[in-house]
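Researcher: I'd like a structural prediction for the single chain below. Treat it as a standalone chain; there are no partners to consider.
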Amino acid sequence: MRRWTILPLVAFIVGCGGGTAKFVRLETGQGEPIVHVLRRDGKPVEVSDKEFKQAVAEHIPSVPPVDRPLEHARQWFGVSARSGWFRYEGRSQRLMASEPGSHENLRLLPADEELKRRYLLWCERTWGPGDCLRLLVDRPFLDGDGKYALAMAIAHGKVLGAMKEELGQLVSPQAVVATVVGGLTLYAVLLALPEPVTKGVAALLTLGAMAYLGWDTVWRLIDGWLVLMKEVDRATTFDGIYVSGEKFGGVMGAKAARAFVMLATVAMGNTVAGMAAALPQLPGAGQAAVVAETQLSIRFAAPALAQVESVALSAEGVTIALAPPAVAMTARDTGGAGGTSKAGFRAFKSMGGFKSALGSAGEGKNWHHIVEQTRSNVERFGPEALHNTENVIAVEADVHMKISAYYSSKQKFTGGMVVREWLRTKSYAEQREFGLQTLRQFGVIP
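Model: Treating it as a single chain, here is the predicted structure.
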């Protein structure tokens, strides 16, 4: 006999469907919080299958192959234990909490045995023989969180399957997949709490999700995860769990699934500082930076991200707590490179729109893009990542001509290509760093 102690799902779902978030509050530890109306016009960042695989190949070696991935993720994200399994002691006629390794003589219900059998068959077809998600370690059956993890793996099945080639280079590919799935599962469980507060690596995962997907999409996925949890709690068969996982996968879609697996892979293999440094280097980070700065008013750069202490979600909005003195890390209270953006961060869909809003660069000056507005950059990063007050600055016309000539020249480090062509394959962060170095080289900024 066994019984589950599951945390009740309090009505966090109220207001989710309508997307009632109203504000972003930045708590900087210096005076009153900075509060502004939440902008909700961002679109999910497109990360191609090729870019996703490259990111996985770079970060997956850092993910630890742990024996108990759910317990590891619970500690990693600070989620308290919510369930357990019990055995009936005939002599005392009491339910006794079972300890790891104490289930040798436990008689399972037929439904438990069948679910376990079907799970192991699914593992064999998907990832190879055995307990592929490490859900049966110290457990005679799939417990509550184990069922959630199975549903999560099914929901992300196509995206996780795309990782197989990169995982083939690892010593324990199954265990690494289990660690990533465990991270995804316990992070989702954390978001299912009423008005959840994420801290540390989990806070950066929340910011990354909102930057890559936009607030409305994250809100909708929380709603979908709550529905999945209720369905899985009621499911008594593998087929019931499979259907719920497939349905949640449909709610997510390929864009969100790639983003969450990519972000979870980075999160499970990094410290806070390491994740803060990694996020701006990921594919699609240029567009994510625009969403972070326009919707959330925080810079999507390592120094700013490293200052994030917590992210709290509620039906009214999102509260981001920054370590003081972090006011300089917010997008709305600082100017752009060169000091041209006194009014705060603004982004536009075209350079024409930028000029209409901000006017001329000034007498004897030209507008200059730190990350160039080439066709390939527009296609890769989106126009808002280029035509914004953090990327476009006013430069003296004669200096601007010299910089343009430099970008059209061949240099020793470009391997026979002109600088502009050499740059085109670099990430947004790399191009921006090169652009800032060039501005220093020509005396535009200190």
